[in-house]
Write a structure and sequence with these properties.
The complex is a heterodimer of chains A (281) and B (274). Chain A is mostly helical and 281 residues long. Chain A contains 13 helices and one strand. The longest helix of chain A is centred in the middle third of the chain and has 30 residues. Chain B starts with 5 loop residues before the first strand and ends with a helix. The chains are: A mainly alpha (281), B alpha/beta (274).
Chain lengths: 281, 274
């Protein structure tokens, strides 16, 4: 039983206070929200989670035909189907997670006004639920890889596979961080809520999704790695799957530093806003 | 003598009228530089002002007052939903709250899934919820509807399920805000009995209601809030009398309102005496 729990409620001061013990108490809630998100997404659908696979497959088909075939954009010698598919699932993860997390105060206005739980549980659950989706999408990717390899269209490189999970962890961190920053800034003034879809669209052109990282001028790459850590994450993820990487250690370090900074900033802003969000949403 | 379960000390809560826009941003920036104190803004008002009280362990406190008196704000501050502007509250034990019917329900999930989700939101682990599942299902008594999406429920079924989860929550402190009005009389009676049992087992309950019948049946003591301040506290009888007198007085001063409202939405004494 919880007889020992004594809580004190008073106006909080200080700019950073996260009670890890309280978060640990709510781990079951985190899991419940993840389950809820996954279940609700495919309720009343006939194809269910198959939608997870249909979308990137269709997108890859379009990109291979139009961007590679008609516009003739280079893929740095990589197999185009795998080149686009690997980046598309990563980009979709980022844009969907960021959009969902950024709306966390607006969408849950009612819930947040009626029940208490550490609010950070909700964005964390969104991030994890999306990760399950990405994990499912990786399966058809590897099937596609095996099929193309069997037909001699692709020579699989196993030695860099370890880069995929590394990139995945960074991807989760940066998505959560960016989402939290936008969410915190929309709790009172909604301007950024209007700008988010546009910013995400624009961001895709600063991320090597349709083209390789090496398409950016070499002098700009380090700056880009810092201001858009996702550019390096995307390249690392793709080279993990396909082999060959043009990311230097300095660029990687810049991206990692920026990722940590974004996540930290997001967490701090979010926990400052959540105290009174119920009054200002 | 054990320590009180709830100790409220000089709690105040300020709100700001109006909506947020460029003007408010300008004011906020100006305030940042001028180091102006919040109190000078005429648009700030106190939803709660210097509220202090104790609730002994195992007792039921009724909170009454007219609309806008600060009852819901008080319960939201106690539930950690929003932070007080001033003051301090000490809570001994886990807090469960029932502020609105099925607030933690996802309409797309079915009844059973929602029991687990709502339990988790109220702070129960999945194992705890599973252990209580039979009792919850029996108490809610909505039978075969458990595998139906909650969005297809009637409001009565909603409140049954929500109260069933909250009543079986292992919270030492339960905050209940005017939620029983939705259920029928039989279910209300069941809820009252459940709350009395909880109190007898040492749970502390804070009960907000406009239904003086329910308050006098259920509560051990009561407090009367008006305009964010505690006007009276103590025995239930005098407090409910005060509420009734004030309500009658406000009706006399505003005769136009009583004309169209003879049945008195606020009063549901029939349920109380049933």
């Amino acid at each position: 039983m919880s007889d020992g729990i004594v809580s004190i409620i008073k106006p909080r001061t200080g700019w950073f206070r996260i009670d890890v013990a309280v978060l640990w108490r709510y781990r079951d809630l985190l899991w419940s929200f993840v389950l809820r998100d996954v279940k609700v997404r495919y309720r009343q659908t006939i194809l269910g989670p198959l939608w997870l696979i249909i979308q990137p497959l269709a997108m890859t088909g379009i990109l291979t035909a139009v961007v590679h075939g008609i516009a003739g954009l280079k893929t740095n010698g990589q197999q185009p189907i795998l080149f686009y598919f690997s980046a598309i699932i990563l980009w979709q993860y980022f844009s969907q997670a960021v959009l969902a997390i950024s709306q966390v105060f607006i969408v849950n206005e009612y819930l947040f006004g009626k029940v208490y739980f550490p609010r950070i549980v909700m964005p964390a659950a969104i991030m994890l639920a999306n990760s399950i989706g990405l994990a499912i999408q990786v399966v058809p990717f590897f099937i596609l890889t095996a099929v193309l390899a069997a037909f001699g269209k692709f020579h699989p490189v196993m030695s860099q596979l370890w880069m995929m999970p590394v990139a995945l962890v960074e991807l989760m961190a940066v998505s959560l961080g960016v989402g939290l920053i936008i969410a915190s800034s929309t709790a009172k003034y909604r301007d950024l809520a209007n700008a988010t879809p546009f910013l995400l669209q624009a961001g895709m052109f600063l991320t090597p999704v349709l083209f390789p990282f090496s398409a950016f001028p070499e002098t700009l790459r380090l700056v880009l790695a810092f201001f858009n850590p996702l550019s390096v994450i995307c390249e690392t993820w793709r080279s993990g799957a396909l082999g060959g990487s043009t990311v230097t250690l300095a660029q990687y370090a810049a991206s990692l530093f920026s990722t940590v900074l974004v996540l930290l900033t997001g967490t701090i802003l979010f926990q400052r806003v959540e105290r009174t969000a119920a009054d200002t949403i | 003598m054990t320590a009180p379960a709830i100790e409220v000390r000089h709690i105040s809560k300020r709100y700001r009228r109006g909506t947020y826009s460029v003007t408010t941003l300008r004011e906020e920036l100006a305030a940042m530089f001028e180091r102006r104190h919040g109190g000078e803004d005429e648009r700030l008002f106190y939803a709660l002002k210097d509220v202090s009280f104790d609730v002994p362990k195992g007792s039921i406190l009724g909170v009454v007052g007219p609309n806008g008196s600060g009852k819901t704000t008080l319960i939201k501050v106690l539930a950690s939903i929003t932070e007080p502007s001033e003051g301090e509250i000490l809570l001994r034990g886990r807090v469960g709250s029932l502020l609105e019917v099925g607030a933690g329900f996802d309409p797309e999930l079915d009844g059973l899934e929602n029991i687990f989700l709502n339990g988790a939101i109220l702070g129960m682990s999945r194992a705890e919820t599973r252990a209580k599942l039979d009792q919850i299902v029996r108490f809610a008594d909505i039978g075969p509807a458990l595998d139906t999406q909650v969005k297809r429920y009637s409001s009565g079924m909603y409140v049954r399920l929500a109260f069933a989860v909250a009543a079986h929550l292992d919270a030492e402190i339960l905050l209940v805000d005017e939620v029983l009005a939705v259920g029928d009389v039989a279910f209300q009676r069941k809820c009252l009995a459940a709350m009395r049992t909880l109190a007898a087992r040492g749970r502390t309950i804070l009960f907000v209601s406009h239904n003086m019948g329910l308050v006098s049946q259920l509560c051990d003591s009561a407090l009367y809030l008006e305009k964010g301040r505690i006007e009276a506290a103590g025995m239930v009888g005098p407090i409910t009398d005060l509420y009734t007198r004030r309500l009658a007085a406000s009706r006399q001063t505003r005769p136009s309102e009583t004309d169209g409202n003879k049945d008195g939405m606020v009063f549901q004494m029939t349920d109380g005496n049933g």
